[in-house]
Each structure stands twice: as structure tokens, then as C-alpha cells.
Amino acid sequence: MPTPSSTKSYAAVLPPPGPSWAGSLMGISLLSSLLKIHGFPVVADFFFALAVVVAIVIIGGWLIYRSPSFKTEVMPAWAMLSMGLIALGTASPVVLGDDLWGFMFVCWSIGTAVGLVAYSLYITAILRSKAGTPTFAWGLPLVTPMVASTSAAQLHEHFELPAMLWVSFGLFLLTLASAPAVFTRVYFYYFGPKAQGIPLMATPTSWIPLGMVGQSTAAAQLIGASFGSKTAITMGIIYGIIMGIFTIPLGAIAHFVFYRAVFKGATYSPTWWASTFPVGTLSLGAHFLSQSTGVEWFNYFSLYLIALMLFHVIVSTIAGTIAVMRRIVGKLKSQLA
């Protein structure tokens, strides 16, 4: 674990409870869904309960501290809150049963509304070159519609609402039209011929593009199955296989830069949670691809990714707890001095 050089350094990377911490809600909520899907109900219940607590702390924390404000430059944080609410809502009927489909719809509605606002404001800032230095966090507002698309397809399956299927397809296209180009630009900025390399504090965000890869694979399988035609199903499978190919180099980059940064003592920040949700989306995509193709080893790969995600959740939780406790102790010492 990284050792902080001072309490002040931790204060700089530990914002108050609020949307900046919503990566934890995203990761824990999705983990609970995946554990239930793969037959670990007791552990799934534990993580779902934890996700509920995290959601309450994040929302309550924002109501108290109002940090961050709802401004364009901090839309990535609000995009995380959007995806966290959608992930929590999606997990509820999966983990606790069909009685909570209504709760899922409410979470999806709120999360999607916030996400579309974040998407609109941030894509405008990027196009106008007002989003600052390129970073993988640029992609957070752009991936939000894809997360909403997956849940919309599931809502369509349950409630049998044709309009929801077209909403799902539209949200899918919204991310596909923007995120790949933006991520390509960021990769070129960090790893191109004239690049300086990715800063230590930004290394956890290298997982974010994998979130689009995994989430779009899952969405493509659900949308293809919902349309029902052989062509739609085949297109979804082909899309998933192509995304699977992209997973190899992008995953290798994320593993290398993130683990190297941790071993070099990168200071903890909420960005470490970026190593959780994207891995979970890959697991979800592999699981649905297994269902679409009947290829069982896709499901085994999904299980491996759950193990990796669980490892990242544990590391992020322990490192975060240590960081918060050191900050509290530091403040107490300064007050007693």
C-alpha cells in the first residue's frame, strides 16, 4: 500500500463524501449482481447491502458538503453517480427478486436523466477544447448512456415495452458515436510518439475504456436477443467478439500501468475504484456472450474477471480505509497540538 508523505497530501486527494466517490457504488453494485448471476447468493447479498450503505453515504454526503458542484468541469463525477444509481437499481431485482423491478426503473430513470445531462455538457466541452488536458476520465460521461442502454434492454425484457428497446438502442449508439474517438485521442496523448507517459495519479483511469468494451458487449447481446431476428443476434455476437479482441491490448495496458503505479507508491484517491466497474462490465459482457453463443469458456472467463474485480474492490477498500483513517488521525493531532 502507498505510504502518504503527509496528511496534507491525503487531504488533496480525498474529497468529501459525494459523487466523486461514486466509483465505489458502481463497482460494489455490479459485483453483487455478478455474484448472484454466478451462484454466490450469500456473498451477493452482503455486497448489495454494502452498496446500499455506500449510496446513502454518497447522497447524504453531497447534501451536507455540496461537493462537487454541478458544473461542466466535474461532470465525470456526476456521470459516476449516474452509473452508480443505475448499477444499484439493476442489482436490486437480480439479488433480491422480482418485486424490485419498480425500484430498478426509478433508479434507471434518475440515473439516465443525470447521465444524459452530463453527457451533453461534457461532449460539448470536449468539442470546444474546454475539457482541459486529455484524460481517460473524459470517457465517464460518454460511457454513461451505454450503462443505461444495458439496463433499458433488461427493463424491456421484463415489462415488454417496445419503446424501451428503442431507447436502449438509441443510448447504445450515443456512446458508440463518441467514446471510441475520445478514448483513441487519450491513448495517443498518453502513449503516442511524443507522449510523456501517464501520471501516477491517473493510472487507475486506464481501466475506464474497458468499461465501454464490456458494457457495450453486454448491451449488444441483450439488444440483439430482444430484437429477436437471426441477423440482430448474429450482429450482437460479432460485435462482442470484436470487442473481445480489443480487450487484450487495452487490458494489458491497464494492468501494467495500474499495478506499476501501486507498487511505486501512488497515493490513494477515489480514482482507484476505476479498476472495479470496468472489469465487472467485461465479466458481464463475457457472461452474456456465453449465453448468445453457447460457448462455455466465455462464462469461465467471466468468473475469472469476477475474481479480479473482487481483488480490486478489496484493495481499493483497504487502501481507502487506511487513507481516511490517517486523515482523521492527522486532523486530531493538529487539533490537539
In short:
It is built from twelve helices and no strands. It has helices spanning 7-13, 22-37, 41-65, 75-96, 101-127, 139-159, 162-176, 179-191, 208-227, 230-263, 277-293, 296-336. It holds the Pfam family SLAC1.
Q: Please state the average pLDDT score.
A: 93
CATH class call: Mainly Alpha
The total beta strand count reads 0
CATH topology: the name is Glycosyltransferase
Helical segment count: 12
Radius of gyration: 19 Å
Percent of residues in beta strands:
under 5%
Tell me the count of domains: 1
Biggest β-sheet, characterized?
A: none
Instruction: Tell me the name of the CATH homologous superfamily.
Output: Voltage-dependent anion channel
Q: Ends: how far apart?
A: 28 Å
Helix content: over 70%
Overall SS class: mainly alpha
Report low-confidence residues grouped into runs of 5 or more.
Answer: 1-12
CATH architecture: Alpha/alpha barrel
Shape: globular
Summarize the topology.
Blueprint: H1 7-13, H2 22-37, H3 41-65, H4 75-96, H5 101-127, H6 139-159, H7 162-176, H8 179-191, H9 208-227, H10 230-263, H11 277-293, H12 296-336
Transmembrane segments: 46-65, 77-96, 102-123, 135-153, 165-188, 200-224, 236-259, 271-289, 301-325
Subcellular location: Membrane
Main location: membrane
